């Protein structure tokens, strides 16, 4: 029974070894200097920002498509009135 247990544990270890190695950081992808690291982070932030901007644009478009014509006019009038009031407040 001990030999079967040992072989089973060995097989499990061999099965999980490639997965453990794949989780380790890649040597080629790590930045060697601070400038490279900041450039990589900036690139990632820009990509995330672009995705967020597209999602926001899509949501905005879907919102306006779902509104009736009267509701759209009302919202635009309210926005104009609020801007006008804000300018008037700023002057006084």
- In what range is the share of β-strand residues? under 5%
The Cα radius of gyration reads 29 Å
Give the proportion of residues in helices.
over 70%
- Give the low-pLDDT segments: none
Let me know the largest β-sheet. none
Specify the structural class: mainly alpha
Question: Overall 3D geometry?
Answer: elongated
- The N- and C-terminal alpha carbons lie at a distance of 91 Å
What are the secondary-structure elements, in order, as H or E?
HHH
Number of helical elements: 3
User: What does the average pLDDT come to?
Assistant: 84
Q: How many strands in all? A: 0
Oligomer: single chain
Protein architecture, described:
By secondary structure, the protein is mainly α. It has a domain at 47-92. The protein is 85% helix and 0% strand. It has helices at residues 2-23, 34-66, 69-91. The mean pLDDT is 84.
